[in-house]
Amino acid sequence: MDVWLYDTTLRDGAQREGLGFSLDDKIRILDLLDEFGVPYIEGGFPSSNPRDAEFFRRAKPRHAKLVAFGGTRRAGVRADSDINLRTLIAAETPTVAFVGKSSRRHVVHVLGVSVEENLAMIAESVAFAKQRGREVVFDAEHFFDAMGEDRKYALASVHAAAAAGADWIVLCDTNGGSLPAWVGRVVGETRAALAPFEGTRIGVHTHNDSELAVANSLAAVEAGAQMVQGTINGWGERCGNANLISLAPTLTLKLAKSCVDERALRRLTELSRRASEIANIAPDPFAPYVGAAAFAHKAGYHAAASERLEGAYEHVPPAAVGNVRRILVSELSGRGNLRARARSLGLDVGDQEAAVLARVKDMENRGFQLEAADGTVELVMRRAQDGYVAPFEIVDITVVSRTDIHKGMATKASVTLRVQADAVSTEAEGSGPVDALDRALRQTLVPRFAELERLRLVDYKVRILDPERATAATTRVLLEAAHGDARWITVGCSESIIEASCQALLDSYELCVLRHESPRVATDGGSLNVDHATPGDADGPSAPQGRGRNMGAAS
């Protein structure tokens, strides 16, 4: 292996503001990393809290080396009497990591000890662990800053660790302010200074305060570092740590450095997203390699070029990192976008390409953004096909809200739809106008279209387009629906939130019916190859002809 990945998500990553892991969360993330093939996984401070102590009792990775983390011995205390060191050894991990000071300024003003005592603390802590058969990682805190302040003392700190038998000397850009050229230079100088210690290797630990953590890690590797520490998705203190999700494919695919099996790399997107689910953090759609937008093509000439030349606008094949190509349809689209999108859905718009594209551009010109509305785009294509017949149409919809002095607000929706030439009317009450409308529509449609019984509405977002118009502002409604494993997004737009909601609801129901009647949506790897947009910033089409009329709303 050329570069050893060292994950510190469970310790340094957990220091991100607002992020907290339960014990079960930590075990689940450990298992994800272990299965992915990360060779070193740092579990936390076994002496800091009961949860971390229990973690080390329960954690049993099959492949990775589990690492217990702590500080060097306390000043004025023998190593074998230091409770922190004894707890690290009691964790029974094959590897332990110590963080120690390499900056004279920090030793004097933060630790409040002599520079000689700090060197002794480092050496004796490393020796204590080595004598007990542990692999030792020494994290030289603030090392890149220290090399600019007092080069001689910084090198003395890592010399003390190496002389005591440290297996890894990890140089830390603790404040995240270093630049790649400086990182490369410092790594090279430190390697030369530690050359006499043949068993000691160099690693790097960078933070992202200057948005250079990944770049600095790569600079360190090119200068000879063999370990890269980082976290899943770059989580960590302040602005985060080096992002291993970006580093793993860059090292493997760009620098030809072996660090993870290429078969495992094809699960990279899954690793990133599953960890986000555990952490209850929304995945970044614009994240490199693994984001939903990482291989999305919006411009018409990009899509056209991609049709002619595979990967024309992609720096790596999406499948190499477990992601998929997405062709967006918007006002910037050309016919290539439409053809590619239709092909992914198993549809053929044939000689209706121009009409569909004109429809899309018209809606975009009126303020709609269809690039995220995969369900709406599919409906536009399906409605343009020969033989299309709407499965149902609106005749009348009325939503009334009244206030009862004893019961509070009560809302009732009355719906009349034309289904196969029959006019069908129902009414229903709900907790609000949209809930009442949904209930009434379902009561009308489910008895006639059994597939709608399994349709679930899983997300509902509202956005105001022109807030300066106050209560008369135009509203966009984004609705995500699920049917089995399939998901799609439809949107509505109107000055009435009820009408916008009705558009999105009816389009979602119609798409479900059309897919059931003509199940031609392509699949990729067992899951639907549809665009999953970021909720909250997508817009949709106006209602089709015959919908949205007579939608009174009284309050």
Task: Describe, in short, the structure shown.
The chain has 555 residues and is of the alpha/beta class. It has 18 helices and 19 strands. Helix 1 runs antiparallel to helix 12 and helix 13 crosses helix 14.
Write the layout of secondary structure elements.
Layout: E1 4-7, H1 23-36, E2 40-44, H2 50-58, E3 65-71, H3 83-90, E4 95-101, H4 104-111, H5 115-131, E5 135-141, H6 143-149, H7 151-163, E6 168-173, H8 180-193, E7 201-206, H9 213-222, E8 227-230, H10 244-254, H11 262-265, H12 268-279, E9 296-297, H13 300-308, E10 326-327, H14 335-345, H15 353-365, H16 374-383, E11 393-404, E12 408-419, E13 422-430, H17 433-445, E14 456-464, E15 475-483, E16 486-494, H18 497-517, E17 523-524, E18 527-528, E19 551-554
Parallel strand pairs: 1-2, 1-8, 2-3, 3-4, 4-5, 5-6, 6-7, 7-8, 9-10, 11-19
Antiparallel strand pairs: 11-12, 12-13, 14-15, 15-16, 17-18
List keywords for this structure.
4-stranded mixed sheet, Double Stranded RNA Binding Domain, 8-stranded parallel barrel, alpha/beta, 19 strands, disordered C terminus, 555 residues, TIM Barrel
Q: Can you tell me about this structure?
A:
It is a single chain. Mean pLDDT is 88; it is low at 522-555. The longest helix has 21 residues, at 497-517. The chain folds into three domains: 4-260, Aldolase class I (TIM Barrel); 296-383, no CATH class; 393-554, Alpha-isopropylmalate synthase LeuA, regulatory domain (Double Stranded RNA Binding Domain, 2-Layer Sandwich), CATH 3.30.160. The protein has 18 helices and 19 strands. The strands form five sheets. The chain has an eight-stranded parallel barrel, surrounded by nine helices. A four-stranded mixed sheet has the order 13-12-11-19, with helices on one face. Helix 16 (374-383) packs across helix 18. The protein is α/β, with parallel strands linked by helices and 555 residues long.
